[in-house]
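Listing 4. Sequential folding, example run.
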Amino acid sequence: GPLTASTLVARWFDEKRGRALGIVAISASTGGMLVVPIMSLLIERHGWRWAVGSTGLVIAAVAALLALFAIRERPAGDGGHATAAAEERWTVGRLFATRDFWLLVLSVGLLLAVNQALLSSLVAYGSDRGFSAAQATALITAVSASSIVGKIMIGLLADIVDKRLLLVVVAVLLDLFLGLLLLHPGFPVLIIGCLLAGATIGGVSPIWAALISSRFGVASFGMVMGLTVQLQMPLLLAALRFIGGSYDRTGSYEQAFMIFALIVPVALIAALAIGR
């Protein structure tokens, strides 16, 4: 979904592409906020098999109808489309031999991995701190809500600010959030931290897509993003496995958060090393 949507947006928009990518990225946040309560209600009333099956059928039907009748490629006579068609396409071998490709994989992959690990453990972290179930859930709600704002803001900035520097800012704010979690603040302070962290977590996706289109061009956008997704997947899986295993061994998330706080600067350095 994100891969095809980002590729389509990159082909459609030449000017203000960052803004467009940020708006489209919002769908992941808003979709999660809408679908999860509906899924919970369906599971409660009809069981998880019926809920998962019916939801899958509805999503498949809606996506197919939109793809066939509502969404279209840019007209062949459009200037931007012609420019994209004239661009030199990257080959897999050439990409693998390009330093900036691996720097992009490393920087974005590490940030996404840490983000996913944090999201998977935030409710449990709140429960361990003695917060009520409602308060612990509110931490995720705060992150999700602010990520919507973050995607728009970062998308707007991606059109006017060096995208590498935006990635650095996101990394710095993520490290500050990890430091805040290690300090065990009270609930009000932690909610504020989650609101700020949500903006950084949501901002990675539009920067990632904008960097690909500006560095490797629109014609090869889908292939480049698809390859980065595959190469980043081991990082995401490793981070999720590590944070769970670390908690099982130590009884807290402190060790994992400290390791992640040391990993994020590696993403920051890799982002700065990407060529203009």
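-- end of first protein; second protein begins --
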Amino acid sequence: AESDQSVLARLDKLVALVRVLPLGTPVLGELTSGYGYRLSSFSSRVKMHEGLDISVPPGSYIFSTGEGTVRSVEWDGAYGLTVEVEHSPRVFTRYAHLSKALVR
């Protein structure tokens, strides 16, 4: 049988993992485009959409869906003002089409 300390150590690792996973949604709003293949609004071809588009009024607060480090705040021609958060070396989230970026 596992010792109590071993079980607690495994639970601590699991809790640490759950904290950084980007789970949930960053804001409550209308889902205007989901993840998956869709007709591109730019090229009129079917393309993979690797994110979720959520419509909210300008000025709405948007929150990161998991703990992480802000890796960039920049203007992108396709996404407008974006904030990118690194949750782990292989997991990032991008928050795009922002009117303002207030990060810490």
